[in-house]
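User: Second chain of the day. Same drill as before.
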Amino acid sequence: MSAPQKQDKPIDWREIERRLEASRIAIERIWVPTVEDTLRILKARAQTLSRESMPAEAADAAIDVIEFLLAHERYAIGSAYVREVYPLEELASLPCTPAFVLGIINLRGEILPVFDIRKFFDLPAKGLTDLNKVIVLESKDRVFGILADAISGVCTIQRADIQPSLPTLTGIRSDYLLGVTAERVVILDAEKLLNDEKLIVQEQVTG
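Assistant: Same format as last time:
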């Protein structure tokens, strides 16, 4: 007596495609970098590049920036000067300080001043904004936060693509600009901001 013949089932190609697509989506969702993750990656890359022997022209050909929204305008600042991005939670006001000094925050035990660069740049008010992010800038000697409405992301901008400041960007704001991109992203000069004595908070209370 011969063994029973197995009945071949038809291959369900649609089911196979569905499983493959589900696997692909699951793999892509394993790790999606945050702004902080991207900043750490960029800083590590910058440190690696600085250790390599490469022409100065090549090292200065591009700048890594973090882009943010402020008063409905697009700004960017060099990520090499950005220590972290922190959600604005509790802000304590300071008496006897300029209008652009919004107050201080306690960042994991470190007291930092927070500035509203809209007021420092004499920008006109443009309706309600969120101002719920603090971009912490840091140099060798100074650290402070600037407010942003939202963080757009981190990108690399070729210095050759940075144009001179627009004629409309006059006054105090133009002194702190590296330039403007073709997409009208205003590139701030973080080094100049960090070294400016006008941003040193000196509280003086008169009796």
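The chain has a mean pLDDT of 76.

User: Great, on to the next one.
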